[in-house]
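[job 4471] stage=fold_predict status=RUNNING
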Amino acid sequence: MGDITVSKLYFLSLMTLSYIVGELTHFLINTTSRDVARGVEFGEKSCFVNASFAHDEDKEIFECPESKNETHCETEKHCYWEYSGLGIQYQVLAGPAFILVFIFSAVFLAVLSDWLYDKLSRTIMLSVGTATFSTACLLMGLASSYWQLVILRMMIAAGLSVCRPVSGGLIAELFSASSRGVANGIFSWGVYYGYGLAFVFGIYITKADVLGYGWR
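[job 4471] inference complete, writing structure tokens
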């Protein structure tokens, strides 16, 4: 543990922060899917309860989610028909658009790792990966079509596929065997913090509607 210095901890904190942001961008679509679907207009539609509708609590009313079509839904005054954030298009965004690119990018990086490390330092590669998924996530807030979201999700996957292996290599370079486990443990917290923050940003901050931007 004696080889742990302030500069190494600072570098480790930057890598961990990068990992947290990366996982936040990874999981954010899961917690904002309904708002994103309504903003960009994609996926399936369902019947929802109008929360502002006033009704007699003693009187039994129709359960809106039971409605299977728009015509039936809109006959009920307390219901409305809107995008649900589910369906095959959401599944593509959350699954294949991310997973396939992540897998192939990781394999590509593994195959060319020796050549890449001769040409570029790991710090530059990590910086490029972090900039890629961060920029893609920010651009998702400007997306106006479904296919723009797909392309940006693919960019997030490509950037994030660089983060974990390159950071692992940097930790191995910076820390000795005696302190490497602690460093890797701290770095690995990133996935949990990123996952947790996806709920904070995706649910609470979206509901707060800061400056009227909502999920964007």
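[job 4471] summary: The chain is about 70% helix and 5% strand.
[job 4471] exit 0
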